[in-house]
Write a structure and sequence with these properties.
Layout: H1 2-18, E1 23-30, E2 41-44, E3 50-51, E4 54-55, H2 59-71, E5 79-82, H3 93-96, E6 101-111, H4 115-118, E7 123-132, E8 137-146, H5 162-173
Parallel strand pairs: 2-5, 2-6
Antiparallel strand pairs: 1-8, 3-4, 6-7, 7-8
Length: 176
């Protein structure tokens, strides 16, 4: 009986501690040898993410907000944003002349699972296309995030953006 109780306690604590942190996967899908300098950057707001039939109406803005906050560490005065999704090929040439780089994120997966009571993790996947001002694709970077299975305070999927975006920008521009 005593061994069963001890085993149950160890199993419970193991489950709690293993499920208490978010996990991330990230990296370049296409990597060039381009040397970036944090200068004038245009961010294109992506279409909102979905999960099944559910559309998350603020997810596109959440990605841009997280990207802007992290880019401000590199290039605080020279970041602009399109407020609506637009294909980089449809940007006017006159607008492109004002920028050195265009970041065009695409939300591939956005899943809010009410982890606090469901024990199902939130998940995100965002692909970042990085172009020069001639519309040439330089790099493609992918981030995936999964929340913990056990959380004490329910969070939104956008809480999974900050860390991998910070790491992505360190990979692109170098560490600060």
């Amino acid at each position: 009986m005593r061994n069963n109780i001890l085993f149950a306690l160890i199993a419970t604590f193991s489950l709690l501690f293993m499920g208490c942190s978010a996990s991330y996967q990230q990296g370049f899908l296409q990597k060039s040898n381009h040397q970036y300098s944090p200068t004038r950057i245009l961010l294109i707001t992506p279409e909102n993410g979905t999960y099944g039939d559910i559309v998350y109406p603020t997810s596109g803005n959440d990605v841009i907000t997280a990207l802007t906050q992290e880019l401000n560490r590199y290039s605080p005065q020279s970041i602009s944003t399109t407020y609506n999704p637009i294909d980089v090929q449809n940007l006017p040439d006159s607008d492109l002349a004002n920028f050195d780089y265009i970041f065009a994120p695409k939300i591939l997966h956005w899943e809010d699972r009410a982890t606090g009571w469901s024990f199902r993790p939130d998940r995100i996947e965002v692909l970042f296309y990085i172009y020069d001002n001639q519309r040439n694709l330089i790099d493609t970077y992918n981030i995936k995030g999964r929340s913990a299975y056990v959380v004490w305070v329910s969070k939104q999927p956008n809480s999974l953006l900050k860390k991998p975006i910070r790491n992505m920008l360190a990979d692109i521009f170098g560490k600060i």
